[in-house]
Amino acid sequence: MTIDGRSAAPDTRARGAVTLATVVSLATCAAIWWLAVPMEPVCPAVYPAPGGCTAADRQAAGVTWTIVVAVSYVLTVAIALTIGRRRRWLTTAAMSALVVVSVVGFGAVQGSTGFVA
Questions:
Q1: Cβ distance 108 to 36 under 8 Å?
Q2: Which residue has the higher pLDDT, 57 or 25?
Q3: Of 106, 95, 116, 90, nearest to 30 (Cα)?
Q4: What's the CA gap between 85 and 100, in Å, rounded?
Q5: Quick one: DSSP state of residue 83?
Q6: Is residue 39 part of a domain?
Q7: Which of 30, 62, 74, 116 could cross-link with 37 by S-S, CB 3.0 to 4.6 Å?
Q8: What is the domain range of residue 91?
Q9: Distance (Å, rounded) from C-alpha 96 to C-alpha 24?
Q10: Average pLDDT score over residue span 20-38
């Protein structure tokens, strides 16, 4: 308890937002690294292969979007635990942005080397 009698623990809505943000971020990272990165790209059968047709290109996109998702997650948690307590719409907006970043990131990694079979 604090001096003014209020609890110092985060309220249940903030905990719920942090839990949901954690689940979304972990699911996105799992999807990126277990589904999108190992897929083989569809590239023309020419030698040497054109740019973007190697596994390294998809891994680079995976690393980039994993960092973007992680930064979005940190910002979402920070908003939920600070100013989002008083302004619930900020927490909702941050969660929505995290979901959009997750979906766009997965699609970007999946399509980073061309169309996937």
A1: no
A2: 25
A3: 106
A4: 22
A5: G
A6: yes
A7: 62
A8: 18-110
A9: 11
A10: 89
Domains identified in the chain, total number: 1
Q: What is the tens place of the pLDDT at every residue in 35-90?
A: 877 766 667 777 776 666 767 778 888 999 999 999 999 999 999 999 988 888 99
Q: What does each C-alpha distance from 81 to 13, 71, 91, 111, 116 come to in angstroms?
A: 10, 15, 9, 35, 39
In a domain, 104, yes or no: yes
Where helices occur in the chain by DSSP H, the ranges are 12-31, 55-81, 88-110
Tokens read off for 63 = 């690393």
Backbone angles phi, psi at 48, to 5 degrees: -75, 155
| Contacts for 22 with CB less than 8 Å, ≥ 6 apart | 73
Residue 8 lies in a domain: no
The closest alpha carbon to 25, from 110, 94, 83, 81, belongs to: 94
Structure tokens at 38: 């190992």
Q: Which two tokens stand for residue 74?
A: 């940190």
